[in-house]
Design a protein that fits this description.
about 400 residues, mainly alpha, three-stranded mixed β-sheet, three-stranded antiparallel β-sheet, 17 helices, 10 strands, globular
Length: about 400
């Protein structure tokens, strides 16, 4: 068992001011690190090297099913699903159930099928910034990054503007790791689940040209998945659509601000985003800092550490994607970078189901923003940009900009 003493406190306010320095230290000195999570005092492991991350994410003995977690984990309140239908969402399933549900959903998320979203994305982006003009100050998270992905996904799933605005707050609560939010999380979880089920019932009665109706047809016509699995599939689409792409757009713009030469590259040639650009931005700072919990189904050795069955493992994508053993000069953004595949959209059977959609939304949205406002810049000093202190995510509270 690792007893390495670290010169910082993980997931403290100081950590969130500069997480990559702490992750660099762990990767070098304690790559499979024993840690007691402060919420519930849960013993767990933090993994930071790329090769170890790939090993764990590709090993079927590391389950994502929260019921496999240790007794300490079960008692901590850290479970997102909390024994509800959320335990049936794709990220929390193991084969063969995972295989069955993912296969049902995949036809809606192939690159070819997602390409049909282009007109929706173009219309929504144009409408969002139609009143914007050079020199204006805007808050990019609330007025841009939070709006566009959720509008696209709500359009494709078939739910309403009013619901989208309510769901955005509930999703933020659901993923919060702030103990002050814990009393409100069950209510947010219940509202998200209730709406997912309501949407499925509505689209079963009045089907349309949308993802929810397509999922229902696949479930009903081929009898592939249960009602709970269908409800959970729609619910996870809501959660992902409202949350993670918003974070990525914010992270990407901030990364470009930090690398003005790369911002100019996008302004001069927005097409670079459709090639290597979005991939490099996902490597540099993906919305996911750590993958969802992994729980070994048996005792497993990783390097010189034995991880006991049930002990939660945090695979730190943020660290793996900046591993200097894999990526040259990893803290530098280089939109022309090629080489090893980043882990920003996962790895193995749990790679992001909506990856093609996330890439397309991000590519088109960023190209339009920078193309129309090539002088885009921060409206506040860089040191005043604050991270949202959520250990599993790379998220920023606000990003004031001048167009």
């Amino acid at each position: 068992m690792s007893n390495t003493v670290v010169p910082f406190e993980l997931f403290s306010p100081d950590y969130f001011r500069d997480p990559y320095s702490a992750l660099d230290w762990l990767r070098e000195n304690s790559p499979v690190h024993r840690y007691v999570f402060p919420v519930g005092n849960v013993p767990m492991w933090v993994v930071t090297r790329y090769d170890d991350a790939v090993t764990i994410l590709g090993d079927p003995r590391f389950s994502t099913a929260e019921w496999r977690g240790s007794p300490e984990f079960q008692a901590s309140g850290l479970s997102v699903s909390a024994g509800t239908v959320l335990s049936q969402t794709i990220p929390g399933l193991d084969p063969p159930q995972h295989t069955k549900v993912r296969r049902c959903a995949m036809s809606a998320f192939t690159p070819r099928s997602v390409d049909r979203w282009r007109e929706d994305i173009r219309t929504i982006v144009d409408d969002t910034i139609k009143d914007w003009a050079p020199g204006q100050e805007r808050e990019l998270v609330a007025e841009f990054a939070a709006l566009i992905p959720s509008r696209v996904v709500s359009t494709r799933l078939g739910f309403t503007l009013e619901r989208r605005e309510q769901l955005a707050g509930d999703v933020d609560l659901l993923i919060s790791t702030d103990p002050a939010d814990f009393p409100r999380i069950p209510g947010a979880r219940e509202r998200i689940i209730a709406y997912g089920r309501e949407l499925v019932a509505l689209k079963r009665a009045e089907p349309g040209d949308d993802l929810t109706s397509a999922f229902i047809r696949a479930a009903d016509e081929e009898g592939r998945i249960t009602q709970d699995e269908l409800d959970a599939l729609v619910i996870i689409m809501i959660i992902a659509g409202v949350g993670t792409t918003k974070m990525f757009l914010t992270n990407a713009v901030l990364a470009l601000f930090d690398h003005p030469g790369q911002l100019k590259l996008v302004a001069d040639d927005p097409g670079i985003l459709a090639g290597t650009g979005v991939e490099e931005l996902l490597r540099y700072e993906s919305p996911v800092a750590s993958t969802p919990w992994r729980f070994p189904t048996e005792d497993i050795r990783i390097r010189d550490q034995v991880i006991a069955a049930g002990e939660p493992v945090m695979v730190m994508v943020a660290a793996a994607n900046r591993d200097p053993a894999v990526f040259d000069d990893p803290h530098r953004l280089d939109l022309t970078r090629t080489g090893a595949r980043h882990l920003g959209l996962g790895h193995g059977i749990h790679n992001c189901l909506g990856a093609a959609a996330a890439r397309l939304i991000s590519e088109m949205t960023l190209a339009t923003l920078v193309g129309r406002f090539p002088g885009l810049r921060l409206a506040i000093p860089r040191e005043e940009v604050r991270r949202h202190e959520v250990w599993a995510l790379n998220d920023y509270r606000a990003l004031p900009v001048i167009l």
